[in-house]
From TrEMBL:
Membrane topology: Peripheral membrane protein
Sequence segments annotated as region (Disordered): 505-527
Organism encoding this protein: Caballeronia sordidicola (Burkholderia sordidicola)
Pfam families: ABC_tran (PF00005)
Location relative to the cell: Cell membrane
One cellular component (GO) term of this entry: plasma membrane
SUPFAM superfamilies referenced in this protein's UniProt entry, alphabetically: P-loop containing nucleoside triphosphate hydrolases (SSF52540)
Protein name according to UniProt: Ribose ABC transport system, ATP-binding protein RbsA
Keyword GTP-binding appears in the UniProt entry: no
Gene Ontology MF terms in the entry: ATP binding; ATP hydrolysis activity
Keywords: ATP-binding, Cell inner membrane, Cell membrane, Membrane, Nucleotide-binding, Repeat, Sugar transport, Translocase, Transport
Amino acid sequence: MLTIHGIGKTYVEPVLMDVSLHLRPGEALALTGENGAGKSTLSKIISGLVTPTTGSMQLAGAAYAPASRSDAEALGVRMVMQELNLLPTLSVAENLFLNRLPQRGLGWIDRAKLREDAHHAMAQVGLDAIDPDTLVGELGIGHQQMVEIARNLIGDCRVLILDEPTAMLTAREVDLLFEQVDRLKARGVALVYISHRLEELARVAERAAILRDGRLVHVDAMHNLSSDKIVTLMVGRDIGERIDLGERRIGTTAFKVQGMTRGHAVRDVSFEVKAGEIFGISGLIGAGRTELMRLIYGADRADSGEVFVARHGGTLAKVNVKSPSDAVNQGIALITEDRKGEGLLLPQPIAANISLGNIGAVSRHGVVDAKRENALAQKQITAMRIRTSSAAQPVSELSGGNQQKVVIGRWLARDCTVLLFDEPTRGIDVGAKFDIYALMGAQAREGRALVVVSSDLRELMLICDRIGVMSAGRMTGVFERDNWSQDALLAAAFAGYAGRDKILSEPAEPDTHVPDTRKPDAHITEH
């Protein structure tokens, strides 16, 4: 279906070199590699967003050189990008059919037909409950991701590229996506599937192509590749299967949220986190997890609720947080899930983005000291293993995962009591995830209180001491490490939608596969 010959791309330096591949009809090819390995660049070349410096392509035996994304889509080559490509001020239906709006008479949109077509497209990805007239900007990131996927499944499709399509999806949405993937393969569509979740590759793909530093290092059938072998080929070294979060002394309560409420999105949520503790928040898309983080951080105004932060000496004090700057001044940091929209100044260099959360440490008399700023940035670049040519490189030129590392690095450079992580490993490769987990462990060992929101339940079970579960805006359960199981956590996630308002705190069967990370000799496993 698609043949790639010697594709290369050079900006200031080569980022992709002499890549040759072929895609067969009805086959899914897993494309994997570390952040910055060239996966997104290759995908953008195939989908017409980037012009290659060298090489050529053929689509169904004919020369293929799209000048734009529209050219590629007209030929049946589509891409669901990691970063969303939606217009927030238009409705879901309008976004789905923006280039093919049904007409009624001269210049009039057939709204009834548009809603009908949108309902059908949305049902394929499990968005039946959403009104097609809802503005996309009013949806959470997870639902927006499903709209983006639905948009690319409309019409003729010969080659479909999925770039980290499940990064913001929970298990239910992932299953719906995989059902669609199976249908597409049965229709003869060739798929490129990019993901750092290695277990997904085995479920979806027949073959895997592994990139490292811009070069294709290995192509093989999935059944010949173990997760360990893929990781080793990706990073060029054996990173090991375990990580030690180290010995942590869980102290007194360092952070407390009481009765946090905003409309139906967040309803009377209360929880507390102790010094040195990692508290996870799980739940389905739309459960209110991100909305809760935004209320705590002052990005949205709460109808009611109080926040308490421990002062020196361990005494809890109520803090008044009406804006993000208030939160930062009170020692609360947020690593947002929407790094491009809310977390970064994309045209600015890495140094400016990292120092943004700690201007006082890099300035004199109100003027930024370039040497201090660069020194701070270089420290975080090294600690976070950010792939970059220098601290002066614009953040917009980095891969998605490295952009996320810049956001995290900014707050790790500041002495905050409370760290709120909203999807911290979204779009980050396996090796870098271990780095992030280690950094979280280091912050917890220093006595900070960590709150981690993640759509990856396995991730929360690996790194957290306790997990709170959100469902329909409420906290329906808080589970201790020794008293949780995946079934119990999932039951709590669905509880709010079944009309069950009582707290699910009964002891569950312990998950023997997940050891206690608070012990000095404990390890967590990736698989």
